[in-house]
Design brief:
The protein has 390 residues and is mainly alpha-helical. It folds into two domains: 149 residues, no CATH class; 204 residues, no CATH class. The strands form two sheets. Strands 2-1-3 form a three-stranded antiparallel sheet. A hairpin with a 2-residue loop joins strand 4 and strand 5. Helix 1 packs across helix 4, helix 6 packs antiparallel against helix 7 and helix 6 packs parallel to helix 8. The relative contact order is 0.18. This is Ribosomal protein L34Ae.
Amino acid sequence: MEDWSFCLHKDYTADDSSSFCMSSPSMFGEAYLNEYSPLFSSFSSPLMKDYSLPPASNSGQSEVIATARDEEIESEVFYKKYSERMGWFDVLNHDRTCGLGAILNKEVGIPSSLESIRVKDFSIPYISWNKVDKKQLLKSFQSDFELVYVGQSCLTWEALHHQYRKVKFLTFSNCLFPENVAVEFQNFQVWLERFLEEERYIYQGTRVWNYAQARFASKTKTLLQVPKVPGFLEEDKEGIGGETVHAKEVLKAIDKCMKTFGNFITADRKKPWWKFKTSLLWTYPPVEDPKDLELLAELTKKLQRKELWLKDLQGKQKCWFNKAVNRPSEESQKEAVFFTVIEMKLISRVLQMPILSSSQLNWCQEKLDNIVFRRGRLLRTASGPLFPPS
């Protein structure tokens, strides 16, 4: 299993061209700007708005608090939209699981050692199917289960990323959160780690099936459900009741969740069926609209190219590993690479789906366009659109 802690101890150099070159520090300029900078944020949607880093002063802390207060409504909108889309995929998962049980004429579920997970009881009518119809329907169900897994994985990453940026911005002030916020993220990490352990030693199916059934069986839908970060409290204000934790502690909990999520994505090693043919020739997966075949080919090439640039960054960083460089710009690069590695894996997984819609391809395109290699640095915008339901 891949160790994601490496992303916090590396420096990276690459160039957004077919050839790689080293750039001197004086040439970096705008490359020092990270995803907290408004220069690399899109304001076309409130869900993509970002924060710029505040000055280290009392007035800077006041600015942080004032800005965060202004952004609370937008944060609420984001989380509501995230929850709604996760719920949409849950409905699809429930419908297909029950339908699969009807086809097989039995209750579908998987045993789990997690005490809180119970397969929901439901009555399944007997349906008679001929062999051809059953095969076609099962293939359709398999495609939908994969959509559930991929869709909720992408949504979860976007939510984790959003909560991380929100809390990190507040670490530049004396903001507090209720203690249960950090605990909820710790629980998120525990559920994900348990799933990975049980997948290794208990589950017998594919990743898609294991995930779909684990999510279906959980009444509280805890697996991959990112906790909500509520409004913050100001440390120097009176009337704060209950146990609280500093924003830095919450940030640490979210950071661990993101690393565990990286392991979750890396452990999915299923080879897509559309990459292989008996003739050993490359083929693309089907698309809903034939007009999108050209876009799919373009995205596949762009992804492969940027994956090579990212690997080159990581390879060159090994030569710099022992250098004592702790500038803020270097820290932002380590973080940017960590985020980009995960996002490229998610984009790759989307492009491996059995069938792709125009909205899903557009999502991949926007995510890839947000990743830029320039003057020996990795630049990226903070976020992007939430994964579409269809």
